[in-house]
From TrEMBL:
It holds the Pfam family LemA. It is found in: Membrane. The chain crosses the membrane at residues 6-25. This is LemA family protein. Belongs to the LemA family. Gene3D superfamilies: LemA-like domain. It is a single-pass membrane protein. Keywords: Membrane, Transmembrane, Transmembrane helix. It comes from the Bacteria.
Length: 196
């Protein structure tokens, strides 16, 4: 009788332990999904600002049609990649596609801002100044949200890779989350040299 009680207590402790580990992994997974949602909010704001920025620039940069079209095309690709990644956040390929699309968008926006330097009237335009400031603030929020996302993915991945969480993760099909990484080449990451 005592052996049966001890066996039931041990089984109950194991069950509670499994439940605790499982709930911790679910909590960590939901945190990194929430982190992605925060990035998504800021990216949507950015995607909404870009067409307005391009419209303001169109009036001044009539001869730079190719650059303006490249920005809009990159924005549309990023919107699609963001939508795909949003539905499959643990899918490494969709997160990598989002990072690549964002890299292309950043490069085309960089070209737009570089070209805008050649148009003093555009640089002085109040709408352009306001949109640029809003875009810069949004970029900062995106960077913070990406950092928070990567931190939560790292905690989640540690949770599913460390023992004993790895046993529960394998049993219940928890998959590793994908970190958002910069996609720029080493050449693109170099600091811009400014000389006067």
């Amino acid at each position: 009788m005592i052996a049966m009680i001890i066996l039931l207590v041990v089984i109950a402790l194991i069950v509670f332990w499994v439940i605790g580990v499982y709930n911790r992994l679910v909590s960590l997974r939901n945190r990194f999904r929430n982190g992605f949602s925060q990035i998504d909010v800021q990216l949507k704001r950015r995607y909404d600002l870009i067409p307005n920025l391009v419209e303001v620039a169109k009036g001044y940069m009539k001869h730079e049609r190719e650059t303006l079209e490249a920005v809009i095309s990159a924005r549309n690709q990023a919107v699609t990649a963001n939508s795909n990644a949003g539905s499959a956040q643990a899918d490494a390929a969709s997160v990598q596609q989002l990072a690549a699309a964002e890299g292309t968008l950043n490069a085309s926006l960089g070209r737009l801002f570089a070209l805008s330097e050649a148009y003093p009237d555009l640089k002085a335009n109040q709408n352009m100044i306001q949109l640029t400031e809003e875009l810069t603030a949004t970029e900062n929020k995106i960077a913070f949200a990406r950092q928070a996302y990567n931190d939560s993915v790292m905690q989640y991945n540690i949770g599913i890779e460390q023992f004993p969480g790895s046993m529960i993760a394998n049993t219940f099909g928890f998959k590793a989350g994908e970190l958002l990484q910069a996609t720029e080449s080493a050449e693109e990451r170099k600091a811009v040299k400014v000389s006067f």
